Every structure is written in C-alpha cells, then in structure tokens.
UniProtKB/TrEMBL annotation:
Entry keywords, A to Z: Carbohydrate metabolism, Isomerase
EC numbers, comma separated: 5.1.3.9
Stated role: Converts N-acetylmannosamine-6-phosphate (ManNAc-6-P) to N-acetylglucosamine-6-phosphate (GlcNAc-6-P).
PANTHER family: N-ACETYLMANNOSAMINE-6-PHOSPHATE 2-EPIMERASE-RELATED
Top-level taxon of origin: Bacteria
Gene: nanE
CDD domains in UniProt: NanE
Phylogenetic classification of the source organism: Bacteria, Bacillati, Actinomycetota, Actinomycetes, Streptosporangiales
Keyword Cell inner membrane: no
One annotated GO molecular function: N-acylglucosamine-6-phosphate 2-epimerase activity
Stated name of the protein: Putative N-acetylmannosamine-6-phosphate 2-epimerase
Pathway(s): Amino-sugar metabolism; N-acetylneuraminate degradation; D-fructose 6-phosphate from N-acetylneuraminate: step 3/5
GO terms for biological process, alphabetical: carbohydrate metabolic process; N-acetylmannosamine catabolic process; N-acetylneuraminate catabolic process
Amino acid sequence: MTGVEMLGLLRGGLVVSCQAYEGEPLHGPRFMTAMARSVVLGGAAGVRVNGPADVEAVRAAVPVPLIGLWKDGDGDVYITPTAEHALTIARAGADIVALDATSRPRPDGLGLAETIARVHEAGALVMADVSTAAEGVAAAELGADCVSTTLSGYTPASPRLHGPDLELVAELAGKLDVPLFAEGRISTPAEAARALELGAHAVVVGGAITRPADITLRFSRVLKEARS
Ligand SMILES: CC(=O)N[C@H](C=O)[C@@H](O)[C@H](O)[C@H](O)COP(=O)(O)O
C-alpha cells in the first residue's frame, strides 16, 4: 500500500489515541491491546500508540493504520525526540511515526528533514506534531507526510486553551497540501465533526475516550459540587 492509500484510509475518520502512562492501572501492552480492539469495534479508522512494546502488541492485534510515537525524556521535545526513537517505532510496526516537529532543537542535534528522511528509508510515513501554523507549513515543506495539531497548547508559542485549537485547524487546513489531523483536547463528537468541517483530514481523540480516570473525574466532580 502506498503512503497516499494509507492516509486515504483515514480520510474523514476517527483515530483513537490509546495511551496509558507508567504507573497508571491500564499501562502496558495487554491493556492497550484490549483498548485498541475496543475502539476499532466502535468504528475507529486508526489508532495512535505510545512506546515500542505497545506499538508491537497493538500492531498484531488490529488491522487499522497505526500511528506510533515514543514519549521519552524530560526535555521540551519528548514526542519521539530522536531519529533513533523514530526508527525503533517504525521497526515495531508503526505505519506512521508521529514526532515533535516544532521549531525547537531536537536532542540528537539532527534537523527535521534528516529525521524525516531516515523514517522514510525505514518504510514508514511521518506525522509532524506541531503547535503553530508556521511549524506545520515548515514540516510539510521538509517532507512530512501529514501534520497534526497535537502540540498546540503545550509550547510557549501556542495558546493555552481549555478546548481544541480549532482556529489552528482552520488556518492549517487552508495552507497545507498534505493531510491535516485535528488533535488535542477534542472531547465531544460535535467538536470532532466541527474539525472535519473546518478542513481536517481526520480527527485524533485520546483522553475523552481512553482515559477512564479522567472521564470519571468529569462526572464525579460535578456530583461532588452538586452535593456541597
Ligand atoms: C501533548 C501530548 O503529549 N499529546 C499526546 C500525544 O500523543 C497525548 O498525550 C494525547 O493524549 C493525544 O495527543 C490526544 O490528545 P487528547 O488526549 O487531548 O485527546
């Protein structure tokens, strides 16, 4: 399958980010595999998965396109911070490797274009996780196969919003020739649909679907307030 065909499978669809941090009850390949199977049953067109072990296990468990990443380190650039991380995720079975494509320096000193070229040599596509329109446009020019608004709200260059950065979605949709994914704090089906209306190729939803502690908190907090 070509890269264009792979991205075509995600057009207009929902990608569900299945992630649980170390120390969380659902951490580990066993639970993330069950999560991925569950979201595919619910109609997810693709999944987004963190870390080599989860990527390898989920790859074997579901037939949909898999966006892999590796959150590592405690620096500013933590989403697949080096080319070595990216290649490990590609080898673990990701179809698309998501990596930090902000304008901040990468810890291995490699430029974005070089990092993207190495992932392509390994046979995977690259999703550029960005926080601003300028970063998205630059990443596409440097060879990224698609762009995602993942990091808006998490860099000094982007606004801290409670909900999704739909302004960025609209702006990037008008500027890019590669597919744009709307990602970050999308918490209702209506917001997801709006992102598509604004020109996103597909929508990525994480916590609102796959983080039961956070979902529970949304309910329990309201009930607690009602009691007091
Ligand atoms: C900023 C960052 O590190 N984002 C991560 C990227 O993989 C994940 O923690 C998010 O869950 C994902 O982007 C989906 O977003 P949301 O969970 O808000 O729907």
